Amino acid sequence: MKRFINRHLIAGVSMAVLVFAGCSKDYLDINSDPNRVTDDNVTPELIFTQAEQAVGALPVNGYAFLQNWMGYFSPNGDFAPNQTEQTYKIDFGFGDPLWQASYNVLFDLHQSKTKALTEGNTVLAAANMILSAKIFQELVDLYGNIPYSQAFQSETYSTPSYDDAQSVYTALLASLDSAVNYMGTAGPSSFSKADIIASGDQSKWIHFANTLRLRIAIRQSQVSGFNPADVISKIENTGGVLSDGENIAENPGYLNDVNKQSPFFASFGYDPTGIKANTSTGANNYIVSILSSSADPRLERFFQSVNGNFNANIYGDQPGLLYNGASTSYFGPGLIGNPNGDGTYTLGASQSQWIYPAFEALFLKAEAIARGWMAGDPKAAYEDAVTQSFIWLGVTDAQAAAEAYLSDPDNTNGNWDYAGSSVTDRVNFIAFQKYIANTGVDPLESYSDQRRLNFLPDGYISTNPSRVANTLPLRLLYPQSEYTTNSASVNAEGTIDAYSSKLFWEP
Q1: Cα–Cα distances in angstroms (integers) from residue 496 to residues 143, 467, 471, 479, 490, in the given order
Q2: pLDDT tens profile 259-306
Q3: Is 120 found in the same domain as 13?
Q4: Which residue among 109, 187, 313, 471 is least crowded, i.e. fewest CB within 10 A of its CB?
C-alpha cells in the first residue's frame, strides 16, 4: 500500500512548480522557497494531471500477461518462455507489481480528491472519484477482497483491513453516484486546463461514470438475486453511457522522443529511432485465426503482415516451433498509429493513450438491452458497437466496411442472424464481438467476460506441457508485498487458491 507522496509525483510536479514560481509576485519572499515541493504548493490540479496520465499508462504493461492469456499476443521464438505465466503456476510475486502500481495511482487520485474537496472544488474531486472507481473495480476483478475503506489513512490504519469484494462494488456505485452529482455543478476554469482526458467536458465525465456503473452491473449478471434496476435508472436519468466517438483517452502532449511517447506505442511500437520497442512479442494464432475466418478487415489494423501473410504463434509452444521476431506479425496501425509505408511511424508516438474506448461502452449497452435491462433493439445496439470498433481502429471506409462485415451471410462471427434467440445466446454473441474488438486494447475486460460467461471457443489456453490446468486461473493471488507489510490483514483472508477461490461474481 502506498502511504506517502512518491518520488514520481514529486518529480512530476517539481517542474510545474518551477514554471509557475517565475510568475509569482512573491518570488522574492525569503520566508518561502518557491522551488521546493511542499504540501502547500502541490495543488490538486497538479496531482490530477499526472494521475490521469498514470491511469492511461497503468494497464499497458500491467495487463500484458492477459494479452497472452486471452489469445491476443504471444511470445516469439527468440526468447525463453515465461514458465510461470505460460504454465499458470502463479505465485505471490506474480501480481505484485500490478498491485503496487495500481495503489500508487489510487493514492495520487485520493490525494487530489482530498485537496480538491478541501478547496471546495467538487468537480475536480468527482473526476478523481470516477478514475478511482475504474481502478478499484479492476483490482476487485483480479484479486477479490481488497483494502478499500481504510486505504490511504496510514495515521489511523497502518495495516488497512480488507473489504469484502461485493461491498467494494456497492461502495463504488455510491461513490459514482456522488461523482455524478458533483459533476452536475459548475466547475472552475482550472479544471478544463488540468484535464488531459476531456478538457473539462463534464457531460463526457458523467457518461464515463455511467459506463462504469453499467460495467459494475454487467459484471454481476450471473450473481443470484442481483437486480440492476436502480443502477440502470440512474444511468438513464443522467445522460446514458459513452456514445459514438466519445472515447476516453489521455494525452499530456506525447512526442516521438525519449520518455515522451504515448505509453502503448512506447511499449509495443517503436523507439524514437524507429527500432521495434518490443522484440519478444507478436500476434497470437488464436485471434488471427478468428479474424481470418471471417475476412475481418480489422486484422490488418491489429497486426502487420509479413510478406503478405499474417504470421502468428501458438501461445505455450516451445521456441523451436515458433516464428522468430523478424517473421512474426507485429502490432498494426490500429494500435500503434499510422505507417508511412516505408517502415517508419510518425503519428503513433504522439497518439492519445486510450483509457476506455466508446465501443466498449456500446457493447455493455448492447448486452444490457439483450438482457432486457434497457429498452432498445439489441441488433441495432450490437451493430453500432461493432461499427464504432471499425471506426476507432481506422479501418478504411469504416462505416461501409462494417456494414459489409455485419451483413455477410457467411459471417458466423458477426452477422446478427447467427446470434440466436435466447438471452444467453445473444449475450455470448455480443461478448464474442467485444472480445474481438478488444484485441490489444482491454484484455482484462475479456478475461472478466470469459470467467463470467465462459463463451470463448477452445484454443486460447497455453499449450505448454507443464501447465497446471486446462483453464485460466480464476483470480490472482495476493502479492508478496502485502504478506510482508500488511501481514495481519492479508492473512485474515485465509488461504487463497487461484483455481478454487472464486470471486463473488464468478458463477
Answers
A1: 10, 19, 17, 11, 10
A2: 999 999 999 999 999 999 999 999 999 999 999 999 999 999 999 999
A3: yes
A4: 471
Q: How far apart are CA 279 and CA 401, in angstroms?
A: 32
Q: Is 186 helix (H, G, I), strand (E, B) or coil?
A: coil
Domains of the chain: total: 2
CA distances from 317 to 80, 363, 423 (A): 11, 33, 37
CB contact at 8 A, 413 and 435: no
Mark which of 295, 319, 350 sits at the end of a domain. 350
Each residue of 9-33: pLDDT tens digit?
434 443 333 333 333 333 334 445 5
Helix (H) and strand (E) counts for the chain? 21, 4
- Residues 355, 208: Cα–Cα separation, whole Å: 10
Choose among 172, 219, 166: nearest CA to 447: 219
CA distance 41 to 37: 6
**Cα 67 versus chain centre, distance:** 12
> With helix as H, strand as E and coil as C, how does 57-103 read?
HHHHHHCHHHHHHCCCEEECCCCCCCHHHHHCCCCCCCCHHHHHHHH
